[in-house]
Amino acid sequence: MGVLSEFKAFAVKGNVVDMAVGIIIGAAFGKIVSSFVGDVVMPPIGLLIGGVDFSALAVTLKAADGNVPAVVLAYGKFIQTCIDFIIVAFAIFMGVKAINRLKREEAVAPSLPPVPTREEELLGEIRDLLKAQNNRP
């Protein structure tokens, strides 16, 4: 089996396609969360703190020198990224929690024992008759 045919067999498996869709949706969700944090959550927080723009918070380690840009620790962007992560992690946690609850509800549903076939009933009767014969003195 050639490498190309092995790759084709691997790529068309359901799990790989599901994973690819999940990655694409996850990337889009990440952009939505980043916009939500940067454009909706952080401005009011900055306003409450005193008009602080978190994306501009930074410490300059070395000033710009000619064509060399400044060396800056942009901790405000880091704070925004941490908030992004917390929101995404919480959303994933809630999704997994909901899925696990649904799985538990499916597992808890009692299943009735299967109805024995006529053949199984006859075998049970034969077994009982043999036991009765063996127990006679």
UniProtKB/TrEMBL annotation:
<keyword id="KW-0472">Membrane</keyword>
<feature type="transmembrane region" description="Helical">
    <location>
        <begin position="70"/>
        <end position="94"/>
    </location>
</feature>
<feature type="transmembrane region" description="Helical">
    <location>
        <begin position="20"/>
        <end position="38"/>
    </location>
</feature>
<keyword id="KW-0997">Cell inner membrane</keyword>
<keyword id="KW-0406">Ion transport</keyword>
<feature type="transmembrane region" description="Helical">
    <location>
        <begin position="45"/>
        <end position="64"/>
    </location>
</feature>
<dbReference type="InterPro" id="IPR019823">
    <property type="entry name" value="Mechanosensitive_channel_CS"/>
</dbReference>
<keyword id="KW-0407">Ion channel</keyword>
<keyword id="KW-0812">Transmembrane</keyword>
<protein>
    <recommendedName>
        <fullName>Large-conductance mechanosensitive channel</fullName>
    </recommendedName>
</protein>
<comment type="function">
    <text>Channel that opens in response to stretch forces in the membrane lipid bilayer. May participate in the regulation of osmotic pressure changes within the cell.</text>
</comment>
<dbReference type="GO" id="GO:0008381">
    <property type="term" value="F:mechanosensitive monoatomic ion channel activity"/>
</dbReference>
<keyword id="KW-0813">Transport</keyword>
<comment type="subunit">
    <text>Homopentamer.</text>
</comment>
<keyword id="KW-1133">Transmembrane helix</keyword>
<dbReference type="GO" id="GO:0005886">
    <property type="term" value="C:plasma membrane"/>
</dbReference>
<dbReference type="Pfam" id="PF01741">
    <property type="entry name" value="MscL"/>
</dbReference>
<dbReference type="InterPro" id="IPR036019">
    <property type="entry name" value="MscL_channel"/>
</dbReference>
<dbReference type="InterPro" id="IPR037673">
    <property type="entry name" value="MSC/AndL"/>
</dbReference>
<keyword id="KW-1003">Cell membrane</keyword>
<dbReference type="InterPro" id="IPR001185">
    <property type="entry name" value="MS_channel"/>
</dbReference>
<comment type="similarity">
    <text>Belongs to the MscL family.</text>
</comment>
